[in-house]
Design a protein that fits this description.
This protein has two helices and six strands. The protein is an alpha+beta fold. The chain has one domain: Hepatocyte Growth Factor (3-Layer(bba) Sandwich). It has a six-stranded antiparallel β-sheet with strand order 1-2-6-4-5-3, with helices on one face. β4 and β5 form a beta hairpin. It is globular. About 10% of the residues have low confidence.
Amino acid sequence: MEEILLLILVVFLFMTTRKSGFVDTEILGQNWQVLQGLDFSDGAMKNIIHQTRPQCAQQCMATPGCVGFSRPAMSPDVLGLCSLKSQRGSSKPSPDTETYFL
């Protein structure tokens, strides 16, 4: 019985912490909203190659006008293409992409 109650609690907490498909995460002391499976091409600012997720976040925070970034959905420490964003704009499906917004 205790295992069932614990499972129900875990499911409840998971469902109540998600916001409209966004998951909140902290990177370098900043709270970011993460949208998985979508890319926002309207606000593309610049692409930076060979970046980890924390490096992408750092690049965005250091770039005036940057509100987020997209990168391949993989381990945070794996190097990948980082696309800085100036706005959310319209989105397009991109199953292997994670987009992060401040």
